[in-house]
Amino acid sequence: MSLVLQNGNVFVKDRFVKTNVFICDGIVVSISNDTPLDTDTVFDMDNYFIFPGFIDVHTHLREPGFFYKETVESGTKAAAHGGFTSICSMPNLNPVPDSVENINKQLDIIKKDALINVYPYGSITKGEAGNELSDIFKMRNSAIAYSDDGRGVQSDDMMEKAMEEVKKVNKILAAHCEVNDLLNGGYIHDGEYARLHNHKGICSESEYAQIARDIELAKKTGVKYHVCHISTKESVELIRQAKKDGVDITCETGPHYLVFDDMDLQEDGRFKMNPPIRSKEDKKALIEGIIDGTIDMIATDHAPHSAEEKSKGLEKSNMGVVGLETSFGVMYTHFVKTGIITLEKLVKLLNTNAKKRFGIGTEIKVGDKADITVFDLNEEYKVNPDEFLSKGKSTPFEGMNLYGKCKMTICNGRIIWNEILTEN
């Protein structure tokens, strides 16, 4: 099968070029103003922007174990709908991927049902319980990286041993940083909104204290260390300094931490996630971290739950919101259209930096496989969860007007999502 994406604004070598992309048998064959005569299908891409497929290094697909929340099939459909062609699936599953046998159960489902590229995490500890290391060495050929996402590794000794083992297999240790002893039953940020509405707060120190510990351990062990979903100003500064000190560290944050602060919260489960949306000062520091490169990636932390699980308000609802289908639109609308960052910078946050760090995904380059997404940056729409392809519908962006609509997503040369008519 061959196709041409004709006359689009194509992201090539860190800049946009008005050109055609010719794809044949899943590979980018040429990037030029010529249109091959023997093409099966031609798509008119005039006024559209063509990006390398986005990469999300933090996605919850919920399968095996929690298929009523999401499946590999529904989650990868949602990812394609949002412009993603490669995602890393988190390990809080049943069974937890803490052994070759368990991670293979997930890989079997991925092979059968995934519509895009899915790379599973292995857990750091058995059952993510923090007491015994997982089979880190044996899973090295199956796991993209290692994480106990959803839980912080509480023991300093256990984390040091984990870093040593992950270092041996030359993989990334991706940490959910949270000190259990500092949580005190909190479920939103310990800030002004919590005080005004009599909610129990999660203090910022519960995140940044463990990041500080891990940075010292990363210095000691030399592991490739990645910090998941940072949310506090102290976290940003710790990571900024660690980079200056030569620590092998990267980090991510999510769109909701960059757009909202705790005074934007509503008494609704769609505003509840872990870590929580923090203060204006934290949001400002995160934005500064995006601008100066301290924060490497935008990750969705797409965490679907059932409608019932998210219907119990801030206190009782499950932690987690969906994000695959809103990530680009939120970032483009709030940060590119407003001039805070360039469109080229956004591509780095959604593709280039994750590709470099995790070794997955592609660029638009002759000879590379065709993982490509196409957006109409002028199309405005209102976020309507009923239109999501994810089983999860809970998002703080519900009802928000956004620009930047995904019109097509191609993975391995195959069209997964399409709203564009062909010329022939």
Account of the protein in words:
The chain has 11 helices and 17 strands. It has 424 residues and is of the alpha/beta class. Helix 6 packs parallel to helix 8 (280-292). The two termini are 14 Å apart.
Brief digest:
The chain is of the alpha/beta class and 424 residues long. It contains 11 helices and 17 strands. The mean pLDDT is 97.
Q: How many helices in DSSP terms?
A: 11
Structural class from helices and strands? alpha/beta
Percent helix, as a range, is 25-40%
Please describe the biggest sheet, giving its number of strands, its sense, and whether it closes into a barrel: 8 strands, mixed
What is the rounded Rg? Answer: 21 Å
What coarse outline follows from CA principal-axis ratios? globular
Distance from first to last alpha carbon: 14 Å
- Note the beta-strand portion: 15-25%
Helix and strand pattern: EEEEEEHEHEHEEHEHEHEHHEHHHEEE
- Poorly predicted runs: none
Mean pLDDT: 97
Tell me the total number of β-strands.
Answer: 17
Protein traits:
four-stranded parallel sheet; alpha/beta; 424 residues; 11 helices; globular; eight-stranded mixed sheet
Question: What layout of secondary structure does this protein have?
Answer:
Blueprint: E1 2-12, E2 15-24, E3 27-32, E4 41-44, E5 49-52, E6 54-59, H1 72-81, E7 84-89, H2 100-113, E8 117-120, H3 156-168, E9 172-175, E10 188-189, H4 192-196, E11 201-202, H5 205-221, E12 224-227, H6 233-244, E13 249-253, H7 255-259, H8 280-292, E14 297-298, H9 313-316, H10 327-336, H11 343-358, E15 372-382, E16 401-411, E17 414-418
Parallel strand pairs: 1-4, 1-5, 6-7, 7-8, 9-12, 10-11, 12-13, 13-14
Antiparallel strand pairs: 1-2, 2-3, 5-15, 15-16, 16-17
Helix pairs in contact: 3-5, 5-6, 6-8
